[in-house]
Specification:
Elements lengths: L25 H23 L4 H12 L5 H8 L9 H8 L14 E6 L5 H7 L3 E7 L3 H10 L8 E3 L3 H4 L8 H11 L5 E4 L8 H9 L14 H12 L3 E7 L9 H12 L2 E3 L12 E3 L9 E9 L24 H4 L12 H16 L8 E2 L12 H4 L4 E2 L12 H4 L4 E2 L2 H7 L16 H9 L4 H16 L25 H5 L6
Parallel strand pairs: 1-2, 1-4, 2-3, 4-5, 9-10
Antiparallel strand pairs: 5-8, 6-8, 7-8, 10-11
Length: 507
């Protein structure tokens, strides 16, 4: 981009009493100004989808010394103010946005990203050459982080907020056929469906909280538990060759196993073979622990399904994920910042509270309390509530339990919580020595987002395992660009298992 004429020519005025013909080049300049103005506003619109306007204003003010404010940006974007970006400002602002590395020209397969969060599962599949053509995420703050790291403005990608707007599951008057047709009109063809459907109704913590509040859990939870059926409806309508579903380990045991039984029967009725379906117990390969990739104990269930009619499953088994585990798992110390901000050190009051709470339960023989880690530790599971006190993962700064709180020097060495950057590394969004994953939200929101996400290397490994199968899909099956033709759908009848349980994909 070059400076527009408005930045190098003096302001032009006209005298109504003695109007002179405009030079021939004026209309050309006007058109160029209009074009560049739209380009700059479009850039600003994309930037503020992820970044706070005050941050953007401060950032711009630091570049060329011009004064920018939140109000200036808002008025400009609303058309109430004529403003412009210098070339340097434009380039710096553009640098805040991600650039697509996988395109329709170089992609190996196409996938969609449902209940995307901040894109942990997507990252693993994109890293091996997958092209994301559709994303759905309802949380506005998670969407900010997602857009800051993945280019959602490219013409081959669609971004959707509420998945129910696509499946029409919240409109009982819509027939199943109408819903399927609508899904196919909105969601492009894809080879792989990725979905980390909400786990709150199935998690131990989520179930306990909802029951204490007298709320329903599992599929009876109309707000979240039934979102699995929205995923199933998309599978039925679009018939991808492969799907990858992720959830908490407790999904298998929820409601004495009945919840998981219904899920597996649903996927079978849809015409899919789920890898390792026959496994059960503690050695189930569908349960993958993140500590095999990064120093965090984080068990998640992973369901990989293949269309039966394509006969592509072969001998695929997640048992073989061991072949894709790193030969050496990084130590926690390699993920920690060298000089973290002192604000992450626990206050004296909070540390004393956590210390006494742990002591109280220790005296009763309970294991409740904080998790103190050193540079060689494997941490507990990072949770979405980490922002509250950080107690599950506290970094030891040399605290001496013998000296306790009376020693001033010891008190200065009280533990600290992880920084958001360290959380991103612990989840695999950043390599130990990287800061490439952008975190445009507050610390509180960042903790929630990383705690709700997945260990990225786990799904990169799953993607690598699937790649040979995806690359060998016949051309007649391979997803094509902009193809929204109606295809055959599997009927999930209300007379089947859903009818018996009162759970149906029917609208």
């Amino acid at each position: 981009m070059r400076d527009t004429p408005s930045r190098i020519l003096p302001r032009m005025t006209t005298n109504n009493s003695n109007r002179q013909p405009l030079p021939s080049w004026v209309p050309q300049i006007a058109e160029e100004l209009k074009s560049h103005g739209e380009l700059e506003r479009n850039l600003m619109t994309r930037v503020v989808e992820s970044y706070d306007k005050q941050f953007v204003a401060d950032y711009l003010s630091s570049i060329d010394g011009r004064s920018w404010t939140r109000e200036t940006i808002s008025r400009w974007m609303s058309g109430k103010l004529n403003a412009y970006l210098t070339l340097r400002e434009y380039l710096c602002l553009d640098n805040l946005l991600p650039k697509a590395t996988v395109t329709p020209d170089n992609c190996k397969f196409r996938f969609i990203d449902l209940f995307a969060g901040i894109g942990g599962i997507r990252r693993g599949f994109e890293d091996i050459g997958g092209l994301c053509v559709f994303t759905s995420e309802w949380d506005k703050e998670a969407s900010r982080t997602y857009r800051a790291n993945y280019d959602c403005s490219v013409p081959w990608h669609k971004f959707n907020a509420d998945i129910r707007e696509v499946t029409l599951s919240d409109q009982p008057e819509v027939t199943k056929e109408e819903a399927y047709e609508h899904i196919r009109s909105v969601i492009p063809e894809h080879d792989v469906l990725l979905a980390g459907f909400p786990c709150q109704p199935f998690s131990i913590a989520g179930v306990s909280k909802k029951r204490s509040m007298g709320r329903a859990t599992g599929f009876e939870d109309q707000a979240q538990g039934t979102l699995f059926f929205d995923t199933a409806r998309i599978i039925a309508a679009r018939r991808p060759a492969v799907f990858v579903l992720e959830n908490v380990k407790n999904l298998k045991s929820h409601d004495k196993g009945r919840t998981f039984k219904i899920i597996m029967e649903t996927l079978d009725e849809l015409g899919y073979t789920v890898a390792d379906a026959h496994f059960n117990g503690t050695r189930d390969p569908k349960i993958i622990d993140g500590q095999n990739f990064l120093p965090q104990h984080r068990e998640r269930i992973v369901l990989v399904g293949f269309r039966k009619d394509l006969n592509i499953a072969g001998n695929f088994s997640l048992v073989k994920i061991a072949d894709f585990m790193p030969k050496r798992v990084p130590e926690l110390g390699e993920l920690l910042e060298k000089n973290p901000d002192p604000k992450y050190t626990l206050s004296v009051h909070l540390w004393e509270y956590l210390y006494n709470y742990a002591e109280k339960h220790r005296s009763k023989g309970n294991g409740f309390g904080f998790g103190l880690v050193n540079e060689r530790s494997v941490t507990r599971t990072l949770s979405a509530r980490y922002y509250k006190d950080g107690s599950e993962i506290l970094v030891d700064r040399g605290w001496d339990f013998q000296k306790g709180f009376a020693d001033a020097d010891n008190l200065s060495r009280r533990p600290r919580r992880l920084t958001p950057l360290e959380c991103s590394r612990l989840m695999g969004f950043n390599a130990p020595d990287q800061t490439t994953f952008r975190i445009p939200v507050s610390d509180t929101r960042a903790y929630k987002q990383f705690g709700n996400s997945v260990v990225v290397p786990v799904f990169r490994a799953v993607a690598q395992m699937l790649l040979p199968i995806l690359e060998q899909l016949p051309p007649s099956v391979k997803a094509k660009a902009d193809d929204v033709a109606v295809t055959d759908s599997y009927d999930v009848s209300e007379d089947g298992i859903f009818g018996e349980e009162g759970l149906t994909l029917e609208a």
